[in-house]
Amino acid sequence: MWILWSLLGILLFSVFLCVLVAYVCFIRIFASPKRKRSKEDSIPSGKVYQSIRPRLEVWMKNARTLPHKRMSIRSFDGIELYGRYYEYQKHAPIEILFHGYRGNAIRDMSGGIDRCFRMGHNALVIEQRGSCESTCKVISFGINESRDCEAWVDFTVREIDPEAKIVLTGVSMGAATVMLCTARPLPRNVVAVLADCGYTSAREIIQKVMSDMRLPPRLLYPFVRLGARLFGHFDPDEDSPMEALKRSRLPVIFIHGDEDDFVPYSMSVKNYEACASQKRLVTIRGAGHGVAYPTDIQAYEAELADFLAPYLS
Question: What is the pTM of this model?
């Protein structure tokens, strides 16, 4: 009998240990605790931001002071989500912009607002779940965020302009968010997608970061997925940007810096090759992660304007 109890004890301890590791992985990767506003809005100190810091500071100041309207929707799972609508001109094309992982709408997308105005577009900048005033403390690497994207599209058509031509724009995880939408039955208003430095899948980017941290990705990823399912109530392997692009019905322009050391440039190459719809891959030389636009504004705008022209005319 004692052998049976010993085996049962070992089994229960093993289960407890697995759940504990999964919980730690969930907290480290998917949880988004509320941070101080000053910290959210601050520009990171990495070298990739050194040369463009003054430009980012100006863009962020403009994003806070430009006239805009606060927008809000309720998500499919009851989360209150917020955005800021900047109108350049009535009935102009509308870009819906999504920031990246544990990012910030003002800090990450202020350059996007400036670019939209320079290109004659209106901008709806989204505060993704777990960021700023949007509620929910779980980041799902684009899985639930892409459903939020669909809801924002419906809101834009219903409440802002039913005839507007819409471009879905995202940076990093925001790019994953909009790429996951490319195969979904969106309204005819959505005419194109801009995916800036997006990854191929949650699995690949998480395992890449684990490798960078000298952790065993193949060993730990099952616990990561278990943590997401147990505590976040979603499956990060449910879909991926690269798989969604194989079913894409929307034109997609991929933009990526060739010196990105967080999301490798090769991931945009894979996404581009997988994409079944009209597409273009633009390489911004010397750009790190998330800073392709400020690194080469002229090339970025020229390529984007040329790609979007047939769909916005």
Answer: 0.92
